[in-house]
Amino acid sequence: MDANVKSNNGDARWVDRVGLLRAVEEHFGPYAHSSIHGVSHWKVVEKNALEIAAFSGADILVVTLFAWFHDSCRVNDHTDDGHGNRAAEYAMTQRGVLFQLDDHCFELLLEALRDHTNGKVSIEATIGTCWDADRLDLTRVGEFLKPKFMSTAKGKELAFSLSL
Q1: Is the pLDDT of residue 95 over 50?
Q2: Which of 52, 79, 95, 152 gives the lowest tally of CB atoms within 10 Å of its CB?
Q3: Total number of domains in the chain
């Protein structure tokens, strides 16, 4: 997804995908490939997000960035209430370095990162897609999927089909 893409309002949007993946893995630390919240989870969240976005109309670049940033600032694999806020702060330091979003899309990313563990649902397509994509991978930690906690119609459909 290395690209220079023009958004509807003319702002340049881009991501240095290779640089982003390398930087986020390094930022996470030596357990990036063994943690239940590391690289393998981020890849699943990205896959889920892109599948849901095809139906929800979510911003593809935002959901991709969410997938890679959302758990990148965890300090452990257990309870870590501040990791969403830290991920948002980390994303702020990388805007213009590893990716570029217009202000509106950047605010969507920050909200999705900050609140992804708060159990909320969202009617905003991009934020809802981010949260659904993450929640669809809860089975990796022994959680049952609950369609009522999904924000998008596709997220609810996938949660239902995966919980059978």
Answers
A1: yes
A2: 79
A3: 1
